[in-house]
Amino acid sequence: GDKAFKVAKLSSITGKRWPVVGKRLHEEYPYIEAEVKYAMREYACRAIDVIARRTRLSFINVHAAQEALPRVIDMMAQELGWSEETKKAELAHAEGYLRTEMGLDVKRATEQDVQLNFTKDEINYYMRRFKSLDVENKGYISINDLRRYFKNVGVRIPEDQLHEILSEVDLNRNAEVDIGEFLQLMSAIDHGVIVHSRFAKALEDNEEKLKKITVERSGGGV
């Protein structure tokens, strides 16, 4: 925004041909270390202030946020004079946030390949739920599918939250949720490995909303 020049003044030389200035917190995302410095001068006093509020990296890719954490904490420790004990406490606090609020546990649990032992009826039920989003029978759910689904059921969800919901289940980070990832999530929930999933909760909430549509709104009735 209008503070870009001030952030740029805090940037350091990368030592690379490109970009020349501005070391990235994570190679795959355009957030630079200078933003951490600027955030601390504005308001940031904890690691989650940087990864969640300043850069919002945790919302975009929770794994990338976790990978960037050590560098963020090192920079904050140098600027704020943190001890090694404080650094460890900050790391634990930030990782706890990523697990409980950003869905890191969801990804880890589903990556454990929870055994799929659904009955035939359960498989059919979950396939119907999957196809309620994958209406084009592509074999995967994309951000456009989520956007269309929530629009059809009359629910307005901010764009960043749509990406968060999809990212929570997208284990291979290709911006798509295939049937395998979907069933792994459902199985993990069924086994109690996962107790909170925004993806599953969003589907359940809107299925309930559809059930409550009145006869008058549906255009029928006696």
Structure notes:
With 222 residues, the protein is mainly alpha-helical. It folds into two domains: 4-102, Alpha-glycerophosphate oxidase, cap domain (Helicase, Ruva Protein, domain 3, Orthogonal Bundle); 113-217, Recoverin, domain 1. Helix content is 62%, strand content 5%. The chain contains 13 helices and four strands. The strands form two sheets. A two-stranded antiparallel sheet has the order 1-2. The chain is elongated. The model is unreliable at 214-218 (pLDDT under 50).
Brief summary:
The protein has 222 residues and is mainly α. It has 2 domains: 4-102, Helicase, Ruva Protein, domain 3 (Orthogonal Bundle), CATH 1.10.8.870; 113-217, EF-hand (Recoverin, domain 1). It is built from 13 helices and 4 strands.
List the helices and strands and how they pair.
Blueprint: H1 4-9, E1 24-26, E2 29-32, H2 33-42, H3 47-54, H4 57-60, H5 62-80, H6 84-100, H7 104-111, H8 120-133, E3 140-141, H9 143-152, H10 159-169, E4 177-178, H11 179-190, H12 198-211, H13 215-218
Helix pairs in contact: 2-5, 5-6, 7-11
GO cellular component, one term: mitochondrion
Protein name: glycerol-3-phosphate dehydrogenase
EC number: 1.1.5.3
